[in-house]
Protein 1
Amino acid sequence: MDLALWIIAGLLAAVFLLAGANKLFVPRETLAKAPGGGWVNDFSPRFIKTLGALEILGALGLILPAALGIAPVLVPLAAVGLATIMVGAAIVTYRRHEVAHAILDLTYLALIVFLAVGRFGPEAFGS
């Protein structure tokens, strides 16, 4: 189980690191032209940059605390934060009638919830 949680954490960290970096460093106009990127027109540039920074911090929070052995309780807390972001993402994409993207968001949400539950449990890190 611990190995599965590490694999999921690594994959999710990579996804959120890439997504966050895109939101933080790619101009809003360029993001809007990407497939499924029309949602950025509904939000301010400041919100998009903040969201990108939070996704990067969440990605780091999924890996670094446990890998370094410093406050590993931050891993499930980071997962809860990213889950909150994904709930919002699923709602936004569903309201925009982008069902395929909403399903992808819900898939990421399910993985994040699995990770959070696994890391909050009594044998959180293979103890």
Protein 2
Amino acid sequence: MINKKVASVEEALKGVKDNMTFMLGGFGLSGIPENAIAHLVKLGVKGLTCISNNAGVDDFGLGLLLQKKQVKKMVSSYVGENDEFERQMLSGELEVELIPQGTLAERCRAAQAGIPAVFTPAGYGTEVAEGKETREFKGKMYVLEHAFKADFAFVKAWKGDEAGNLIFKGTARNFNPNMCGAATITVAEVEELVAPGELDPNHIHIPGIFVQRIFQGKKYEKRIEQRTTRPRE
């Protein structure tokens, strides 16, 4: 079995350059590749196109890359938690492609499966469909959406083994699994890295064939976007 383990985030991100296209997993701030994002900030790479459901918040997640003006274009579904994102978009500093959430997930999955494009009803008759091929199937109109092309996919899992097999937890499964294998190189950071054979095969969500590099992350903050509480009775 091929050993995909690398010793550090520095080794995991070898080959990252300016003007690349990255996929970054997570849902809100749940399951985001915190270590990879922090190192991208440290590397100072610029002109990036980032494909991610969210754009982080002002001082965390992808918001850190936006603060440093490292992102040229965001391809996202929900971006309502980031004031700096809004400022850059409205000022024309940041190119933005907003995509229906299911379409975003499906374009990732299509890239993972080697499917060049898919038809979806989402967005037909709106700005989303402008300039795109449309087609009727059984009386219903669909929009042709192309699979994403990315240089790196950065994902975060709960557990993984040295062969790259991954287990996700909770809402971290929303986009991370679809991004595995959907780019030229998939880098997985995990909270717990174990030896091959230690994971129950019945519990594995993504097999190692979809992962090229894996490392154990450190110091996960796991922030909450909007903490809502109520007084105790």
Protein 3
Amino acid sequence: MANKLYSDPAAALDGLLFDGMTLMSGGFGLSGNPESLIPEIRTAGVKDLTVISNNAGADGFGLWMLLESRQIRKMISSYVGENKLFEQQYLSGELELELNPQGTLAERIRAGGAGIPAFFTRTGVGTIVADGKPTEIFEGEEYVRETWLRADLAIIKAWKADPAGNLMFRKTARNFNPNMATAGRVTVVEVEEIVEAGTFDPDCIHTPGIYVDRIVKSTINEKRIEKLTTRAREAA
């Protein structure tokens, strides 16, 4: 079996990055972001990137770093709020945006991994989401055709991996990560823990190792809370 383990994030990305590439980056809000790999992409200086991700990070964190360095040319996303830099670059014309309903984005990525070039959905019919896209009538209802999403590279964050690349995700940090693992020509995974072969119960594996090309242990695990909400402690 080929060795999939790499010593550090820079080594895990070596030879994979190039200008104009399409990149998938896992995460939802600040949960499940590939925190260790994104800074290495910034350091590499590749530009004109098309990035497929639910959102573009938050101020100072996640994909925001690649926006700040002007390395992203286009975002394919479902949520663009609460990121002032994203807003500024889009409104100024610096950044292209392909906005998707969130479920449609997830299904486009899943379709890319499953080898399904297109599918039909009712979501977005009659809105700007459907502009320029073919529609069909099924059982008396109009549906819009959406196409798959695939990438040159998928970078994802998992909780645990074994040397074969079998993955487990933790709770909501799973989000878009498993689907993206299947839709990248090459998939690089950063994980919090690397376990010995045979550790996982096969029924508990979320992503089979066949989809994973390179594995590296995370160097950054901040797990920030985007909006911390607290209440006053009741008096004793």
Protein 4
Amino acid sequence: MTEYPEKTCQIDRLVRQPKLVSAALSGQKTQQRRDGLYAYPGETFELEGVTFVVTEVARQRLGDMTDRDAQAEGYPNLAMYKDLILKMHANMEWNEDGLVWVHGFKRQQPE
């Protein structure tokens, strides 16, 4: 079993931006990177009445991100992801060695 630190934010704040909510609902977005831990594997959250389950949580260096990672975030490529993240977070610098929490999720199937 993997040990995780205490969460830094509530799971309902994991995916908030309307375009990213739409991307998750359409299945284009399956990951969310945050500088803090928002959820543990197995936890669920809702977006517009649809339930999602967190499937994995892992640490990643920003410098290790790929185009595939950016696509899982709902962006066409890493360059666009990086550009939009830097625009969204004033005074943020892209630090290749910066660590983020990758929250993987999927739509929960009805039982």
